[in-house]
Amino acid sequence: MAFTQIDYETHGPIRVIRFNRPDKRNCIGPTTHLELVEAWTRFRDDQSALVAIITGAGDKAFCTGGDLEAGFDLVPSTADEIAAHDRGERPGILGPSRWTDIYKPVIAAVNGAAYAGGLEWACFADMRIAEEHASFGVTCRRWNIGLADGGSQRLPRIVGLGRAMELILTGKVISASEALTIGLANEVVPKGRSLERAMELAKFLCALPQPAMCADKEAAIRGYGQPLAEGLRIEAECFNRSIHQPETREGLRRFLERDHPDRRSDAPTKTPGLIRD
């Protein structure tokens, strides 16, 4: 598929998936939906792709949700389509937003407005780097359009039910600084720097051993909301799958020989927040 409304960029093991409709504030229409499904399929299935970054073209919007000019073209309309959507057999309204099995790290570089479905795509990521002029809101509230791309489920998991309900029910728009305060944003950076900062973080993640990190993400995603005993069972399953990988033996060797990457003069990355005497 040739992309016309998104960009799919390869930077070594990092993939940048960019909403590219700046004249439409990067909103998602039927074509964008199909291109997003293709892009995320490529990332999920490509073993050489380790980290994905989501961002938007231009400096005004990350993504402002569904293209309302498309009317009902984005939503299931027949009885069969609605039944399939109810059963979870459709990827999402605005791309594959309902997928829950991408266990590689995903970072959102929020370079402007993240509204409605755009907020939902920001919540699809594991971490959100927001530019200082970015804003967030369930602005579809005023048009009687509900959340259908994970916002009612992911947002409460990120910021807690009380804060999420405030945003979901009122449709209020919050600034990047408030998003940081409530835990929606992980970091706020100057205008124009979110992608650069996300790339720095992605490079660090790529430099880490992958099996345990991806297994831990899987355990966290699958175990969230489960009874503790079931969550621990899932954790054990993921741990036992990763611990016997060759990367573990190499990690033990480096630990025993004090071959710590932070001690190398040529280390490409340093452990964030590491404190040494």
From TrEMBL:
Coiled coil: none
UniProt keyword terms in alphabetical order: Lyase
Top-level taxonomic group: Bacteria
InterPro entries noted in UniProt: ClpP/crotonase-like_dom_sf (IPR029045), Enoyl-CoA_hydra/iso (IPR001753)
Enzyme class: lyase
One GO MF term: 3-hydroxyacyl-CoA dehydratase activity
EC number: 4.2.1.150
UniProt-listed Pfam families: ECH_1 (PF00378)
Signal peptide from the UniProt entry: none
The keyword Lyase is assigned to this record: yes
Protein name (database record): Crotonyl-CoA hydratase
Organism annotation: Pseudomonas fluorescens
Lineage: Bacteria, Pseudomonadati, Pseudomonadota, Gammaproteobacteria, Pseudomonadales
